[in-house]
């Protein structure tokens, strides 16, 4: 099976950055299959990149090498790292962007990328995606032992975790992700519903203080159970309680952004 390398960046689709990385990879391993997860991560948004990686990494073949370059600290003392997990490799900056996915799969080893033999001959201070991460991914696809990259890392950077407070009929959380359709994911998981006492057909009061938003919505199984333009709550494909509008954009209509606090009350 040809090795698969994925790319996830905030580079956009209208510059030379992504094709340069692909060129480096293919020059070292012409047999590599390169898949673009996305290059439309909002600039410097490490949290959105981390969630996007977590939501998508597991659907690729075992052995896939996931490269993430959302790297506002490029050229500073932040480390470049490669992670070996039970089923995958992850390559990118040590700013927490890799850890949600890597820990989900189960980390075996983390190495600082220090060995210049596996970088481009000249390493710029502003484009480590091309000069460090792309060649390392290519060498890993050729069978490189991760231990040859550098010293073991025992203190990788981590992003703050999702903090929820869930009790009977009330939950406090935050908006952790907004998708292309404007659906707003809260941090409340499907496994929290029993404690919350929420079941399909119940009514929820949704309060988002920063936006002065106070809504009453139905908790439904899917979008199609709501009327056109109706606000609803549901459990989405990743297992989070989501706030949506059927055939409309919830985040846009209510001005919600990732990081907004949200309180949910089950109305009995």
From TrEMBL:
Residues 175-263 form the S-adenosyl-l-methionine hydroxide adenosyltransferase C-terminal domain. InterPro entries: SAM_HAT_C, SAM_HAT_N, SAM_OH_AdoTrfase, SAM_OH_AdoTrfase_C_sf, SAM_OH_AdoTrfase_N_sf. Residues 5-149 form the S-adenosyl-l-methionine hydroxide adenosyltransferase N-terminal domain. This is Chlorinase. The keyword Glycoprotein does not apply. It comes from Vulcanisaeta moutnovskia (strain 768-28). The keyword S-adenosyl-L-methionine applies. Belongs to the SAM hydrolase / SAM-dependent halogenase family. Keywords: S-adenosyl-L-methionine.
């Amino acid at each position: 099976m040809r090795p698969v390398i994925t790319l996830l960046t905030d580079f956009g689709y209208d510059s030379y950055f992504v094709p340069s990385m692909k060129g480096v990879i293919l020059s070292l391993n012409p047999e590599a299959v390169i898949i673009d997860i996305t290059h439309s991560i909002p600039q410097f948004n490490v949290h959105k990149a981390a969630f996007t990686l977590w939501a998508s990494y597991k659907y690729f073949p075992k052995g896939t090498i996931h490269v993430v370059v959302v790297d506002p600290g490029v050229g500073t003392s932040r480390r470049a790292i490669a992670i070996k997990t039970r089923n995958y490799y992850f390559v990118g900056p040590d700013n927490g962007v890799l850890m949600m996915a890597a820990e989900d799969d189960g980390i075996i080893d983390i190495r600082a990328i220090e060995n210049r033999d596996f970088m481009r001959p000249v390493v710029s201070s502003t484009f480590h995606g091309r000069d460090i991460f792309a060649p390392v991914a290519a060498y890993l696809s050729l069978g490189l032992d991760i231990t040859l990259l550098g010293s073991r890392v025992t203190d990788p950077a981590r992003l703050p975790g999702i903090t929820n407070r869930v009790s009977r009929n009330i939950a406090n959380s935050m908006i952790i992700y907004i998708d292309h359709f404007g659906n707003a994911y809260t941090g409340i998981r499907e496994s929290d519903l029993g404690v919350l006492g929420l079941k399909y057909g119940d009514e929820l009061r949704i309060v988002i203080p920063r936006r002065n938003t106070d809504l009453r919505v139905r908790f439904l199984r899917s979008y199609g159970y709501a009327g056109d333009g109706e606000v609803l709550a549901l459990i989405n494909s990743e297992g989070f309680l989501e706030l949506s509008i059927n055939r409309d954009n919830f985040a846009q209509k209510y001005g919600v952004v990732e990081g907004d606090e949200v309180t949910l009350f089950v109305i009995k």
